Amino acid sequence: ISISNGNRKTGNIPSLSFPAVKTCRKDAPCVKKCYALRLERLRPNVHQAYERNLKIWIENPELFEIEFGYMSQNYRVFRLFVSGDFPDEKFFKMACHVAERNKNTVYYAYTKRFDMVNKYHDIIPKNLKIIFSSWDGLDMENPFNFPVSIVIPRGQEIAKKDLNKVCGGGCDT
């Protein structure tokens, strides 16, 4: 599988990604403005790596789990999905198992797969940090109070007192 060494947005935090849109919710309203899809179009090698990751997951999930667990275990922090999302419940459960085995690594993932995360909230280990990625027009049930990342469209005002932290720049800064 292909692991990224980081990017301008996250610094030197390694990540595992899948192709943009393909593994995302079918009703995700962010598809039209997807930064990851633009990146994949600009860098075909990145797109190929993400496609290869998904192909390995689909064709040989046992091998994928072994490689993912081995390749992520020596990092302090590891991100799932700069591009893409949890493709299915089996992958979500596998990510929980890998995190449970690699207790010295903090894994985190932004996701719009709210229903799946809520369904399996009780198996998520403490070192797997799930952040719900909200988007205007997307219904989000959050009965277990997962942290929420909110995209604020340019020019739209929001009361900063309602937020924990406001990012001062774009995704590339």
Structural commentary:
The chain has 173 residues and is α/β, with parallel strands linked by helices. 32% of the residues lie in helices and 13% in strands. The protein has a 5-stranded parallel β-sheet. Helix 1 packs across helix 2, helix 2 packs across helix 3 (61-72) and helix 3 (61-72) packs parallel to helix 4. The longest helix is centred in the N-terminal third of the chain and has 16 residues, at 44-59. The protein starts with 14 loop residues before the first strand and ends in a 23-residue tail after the last strand. The model has no long low-confidence stretch (mean pLDDT 86).
Write out key terms for the chains shown.
alpha/beta; five-stranded parallel β-sheet; 13% strand; 173 residues
Principal-axes geometry comes out as globular
Strand content: 5-15%
The residue-averaged pLDDT reads: 86
Order of helices and strands: EHHHEHEHEE
Number of strands: 5
Produce the secondary structure layout.
Elements: E1 15-16, H1 35-42, H2 44-59, H3 61-72, E2 77-80, H4 89-101, E3 106-111, H5 114-119, E4 128-134, E5 148-150
Parallel strand pairs: 1-2, 2-3, 3-4, 4-5
Briefly, what is this?
This protein is α/β, with parallel strands linked by helices and 173 residues long.
